[in-house]
């Protein structure tokens, strides 16, 4: 896992440097720097407005008594988008702008909901779902059918000095 993450980060960094050099050669150094700074500011403003929209949807779901699984995932995706847009470079800006599109973000969130089953923290956290359920029931609490026996105990030591 660490090797894949390291390889991905190195690859993206090298690609960013390559693209920045090419764009800098075409536009010049200062316009390239200005474009990178402008995309960071515009991107952060867009992420803020999209984040507020997702927060409103989250609150509506909670008010309706539903678990807002898709809104949680979209909120996390917006966090990642914010990091991508603030990171200097055009490749990460492009990826961030893709995720910023509500239609793309909702499709990715739905895919994640359909393919990853999330259990409660008490029963073990995250697990892969092999069923590929599209019902959206993955976030509902699953009650255990085990019989629970409640009782008390007292420790008695035989060796008392």
Automatic annotation (TrEMBL):
<feature type="compositionally biased region" description="Low complexity">
    <location>
        <begin position="124"/>
        <end position="136"/>
    </location>
</feature>
<keyword id="KW-1133">Transmembrane helix</keyword>
<keyword id="KW-0472">Membrane</keyword>
<dbReference type="GO" id="GO:0016020">
    <property type="term" value="C:membrane"/>
</dbReference>
<dbReference type="Pfam" id="PF04186">
    <property type="entry name" value="FxsA"/>
</dbReference>
<feature type="region of interest" description="Disordered">
    <location>
        <begin position="124"/>
        <end position="161"/>
    </location>
</feature>
<feature type="compositionally biased region" description="Basic and acidic residues">
    <location>
        <begin position="152"/>
        <end position="161"/>
    </location>
</feature>
<protein>
    <submittedName>
        <fullName>FxsA cytoplasmic membrane protein</fullName>
    </submittedName>
</protein>
<feature type="transmembrane region" description="Helical">
    <location>
        <begin position="76"/>
        <end position="100"/>
    </location>
</feature>
<keyword id="KW-0812">Transmembrane</keyword>
<feature type="transmembrane region" description="Helical">
    <location>
        <begin position="28"/>
        <end position="47"/>
    </location>
</feature>
<dbReference type="InterPro" id="IPR007313">
    <property type="entry name" value="FxsA"/>
</dbReference>
């Amino acid at each position: 896992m660490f090797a894949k993450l390291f390889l991905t980060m190195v690859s993206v960094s090298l690609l960013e440097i390559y693209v920045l050099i090419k764009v800098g050669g075409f536009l010049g150094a200062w316009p390239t720097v200005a474009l990178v700074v402008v995309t960071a500011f515009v991107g952060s403003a867009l992420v803020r407005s999209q984040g507020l929209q997702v927060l409103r949807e989250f609150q509506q779901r909670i008010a309706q008594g539903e678990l807002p699984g898709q809104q949680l995932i979209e909120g996390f995706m917006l966090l990642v988008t914010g990091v991508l847009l603030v990171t200097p470079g055009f490749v990460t800006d492009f990826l961030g702008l893709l995720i910023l599109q509500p239609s793309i973000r909702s499709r990715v969130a739905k895919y994640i909901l359909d393919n990853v089953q999330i259990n409660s923290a008490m029963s073990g956290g995250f697990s892969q779902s092999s069923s590929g359920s599209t019902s959206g029931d993955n976030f509902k609490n699953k009650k255990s059918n085990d019989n629970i026996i409640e009782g008390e105990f007292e420790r008695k030591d035989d060796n008392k000095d």
